Fold this protein.
Amino acid sequence: MKKEEKILLIGASFWYLGEGLFGPLFAVFAGRIGGNILDISWAWAIFLLVTGILEIFVGRISDKIGHAKLMVIGYALNALFTFCYLFIHTPMELFFVEGGLGIALALANPTWDALYAKFEDRRHAGFIWGIEQGTQEIITGTSVLIGGVIVNFFSFTVLFVIMGIVQTIGTIYQARILYPQPASQEISAHHKT
């Protein structure tokens, strides 16, 4: 596996961990701020619609200006909007945050996929993508359980702080992709191992 693929996988793993902590607790949180079933539906729809519409445009723009910077900006925005959960007190504020998270995901998703495909070892493409998908599901599944424990024994506030910190770490780690290691250093690093 190439160094760039490892950077992308590890950075994404932090994102899955942070995001997964909230998982199914979203509905419980929405209820606590006065949201009902329709509010939860609206919030989720806003997130998905903003993400879906913008991913098309971001994908096109990123082909022209580069994938890595937009991806890192998306990760950073995601961490920022995750911290915004701390300030949500009404369903309307939840809609705003979900829209912001949709923008963040639209910046991060197509650009991450394009970079991962760019660096993949084509001889082992199935395995490389299997690692990505399997890692995502394992980390998300584990983090859902951890998130439930955190909220049960502490609070949503603690959960959102942990989520934001984890996603900030992921953003910083993912930013390493902006500074590729020269091929000569990569070769010498392989000879040392």
Q: What stands out?
A: Residues 184-193 have pLDDT under 50 and may be disordered. The two ends are 14 Å apart (CA to CA). The CA atoms of residues 71 and 108 lie 4 Å apart. Helices lie at 3-20, 25-32, 37-65, 68-84, 91-119, 125-153, 156-174, 183-192.
